[in-house]
C-alpha cells in the first residue's frame, strides 16, 4: 500500500535555450523557455526530494557565473534563478527546513538537477552508479564537478527499487548513462511518472523524439526509455510528466498547492 501523501512540483529556475537541446534533430533556431523543477514527495515515513535544481551561488556570484556558465558552453546564457526559488525558500513556505528532507533522489547529475545539493547536504542522496561514474568522468559539459564533490551521504544504487511504499525508481538511461525516473502512487489521483530528462517536452513523448543530448550519442537507448515509460504509464494508468515543458508545468497545481 502506498505511503505517499502529497506531491509538490517546485519551480527552482527557468532557462532559455534552443529547442534542439530538448528535441534531437528538430527545433533548431526556436528558443524555448524551460522550467527547472524539483519535486517534493511527502510520505508517511518521511520526505523525498526528486532533483534539486541549480546551485544558486554559481548564478548569483558574477565570478562563479563567468566560470561555470562560459559563453562557449552556454551560448544561450545561464538559467535565471531568484532567491525565492531556492529550495530553503520553498521549504519555509511549508514550515519546513532542509533538515526535514530525509532522502534526495537524483534523476541525473547535470547542473540543473544536482547543483542544489548544497542546500540539502544532510539528506541521504540516491544516485545510479553509472550516473555517478559518468559525472565524475565529465562525460559532457552539463556536469559541474563542484556540484557533487561535497561530503554527501551517497547511497549509490543499481537497477530499479522501491524508495518507500508507493515510490519506485525506474531506470531510463539515454539522456545520461544512469538516468532514473520515478513512479509515484498518489493516495487519491492517478499515479504520476516523473520522466526527468528522459523526456523534456510533451513532444518527446508524443512523437517519441530523443532528447537533444544523448550519452555517447545513444539515441537508441533514449528512445527505448521513452517507450518504456509510455508502456509503464499505460499499464499503471499513470500520468507521464515531462520535465522542462513550460506549457505542461503551467497546467500543474501551483506551489504551495499539491497533488494527492
Please provide a written account of the structure.
Helix content is 23%, strand content 25%. It has 260 residues and is an alpha/beta fold. It has one domain (4-251): Ribonuclease Z/Hydroxyacylglutathione hydrolase-like (Metallo-beta-lactamase, Chain A, 4-Layer Sandwich). Strands 1-2-3-4-5-6 form a six-stranded mixed beta sheet. A five-stranded mixed beta sheet has the order 7-8-9-10-11, covered by helices on one side. Helix 4 links the parallel strand 4 and strand 5 (124-128). The longest helix has 18 residues, at 219-236. The model has no long low-confidence stretch (mean pLDDT 97).
Q: What is the CATH domain class? A: Alpha Beta
Per CATH, the superfamily is Ribonuclease Z/Hydroxyacylglutathione hydrolase-like
Strand order of the largest sheet: 1-2-3-4-5-6
Report the radius of gyration as a whole number of Å.
17 Å
**Helical amount:** 10-25%
Number of H- or I-type helical stretches: 8
InterPro entries: MBL_superfamily_lactonases, Metallo-B-lactamas, RibonucZ/Hydroxyglut_hydro
GO molecular function, one term: hydrolase activity
Protein name: N-acyl homoserine lactone hydrolase
Cofactor: Zn(2+)
